[in-house]
Fold this protein.
Amino acid sequence: MPKATCRRLPTELDSLPLRFESHARQALVIGAGLSGSAVAHSLASRGWTVTVLDQADGVGAGASGLLAGLAAPHVSPDDNVLSRITRAGVQATLQRAQALLQSGTDWALTGVLEHNLAGKRRLPTGNAVPEEAQDNANECSTQASAEQIAAAGLPPGTPALWHVRAGWIRPRQLVAAQLQTPGVQVLWGRKAQHIEKRGELWVVTDAQGQTLGQAPLLVVASAFDSLALLQAVPGFAVPLNPLRGQISFGHMGSLTDAQRQLLPPFPVNGHGSFISNVPTPDGQPGWYIGSTFERNCEQAPVREEDHAANQLRLATLLPDLGTAMQHQFGPEHIQGWAGLRCTLPNRLPAVGPIDGERLPGLWLCAGMGARGISLAVLCGELTAAWLCKEPLPLEPALAKHLAAERYVGKAKAQ
């Protein structure tokens, strides 16, 4: 039987020093996307009063408006930090989806097949395999079976992994559900322009100098827009970067019977991802392929050349299906969505106090990159656990890799 990878999470308190006392239990969050809504939900669920500011008119205007995406773990032969963190993140996301969303409409625990193109993804071997994996093999990532490979329409012997604890989610629905948590107030159409500390409170103002909100705790969770707000803060050095992504999608009703017969019964990941039978914005079932990755681009228009790039992704990921669906990428069928994500050089978010000594009460939750679905809920829970001095949702040694204060030394050195 193929070896699996899985890890139980400890319940010990983090040894990282807590530098903000949450006696007021009032928070102001900038950004109502995946990260901001996750922070708001986690704090409000613990009795906090949370006000969320967002420049948009409603849910899903930014990257959280992604029509459909995957919650699936990252794997590596040495079971590295990213793999362990995403595994914990996927677990947290699926639990949140089960609690708040409608299965089959908003999300589904389908399992995900990962086409291991160029051998980029391999399961841990030898000493890297967690001891407890043997007790939880049915809940962990494994080598894909011959039946699963065949169901995806791939040739026998194609290298592939199977992630049993994985599935698709509509991020907008998750964001909306999290923002409806009692104790959360969302103020739409509020563009934060400036932040400053006044006494014990952090105050957020707009371009006209009008106060949008104030609280002893301010969590900036507005993706790449966080940089414009924070770069004027003395010593801030979190290297947030923009990452544009575009998906291509179409209606299931436009597919021929022959094309339908080639559709895999579960999402396939590996070179972008392919998902089918998930509602499109107009409510009709649709199929999705993407996303593109364009770094250092601060705008997110839908582009025809990216439809061509996504067509090539499908042809690489699922060759037979890609060939059969060539005409579905014609202008009469294809639609697109593009968004701007925020990433950090080591592909791990920045969470928690930016500089607890010099900037008490100013926190960050950003840098999810292309893994916002898999990481945002975990980062929201980590934020709340640190503030409330609770057991952490992942090992303290891993949590330190997410701490925004890991950049403090770099800031002071500049």
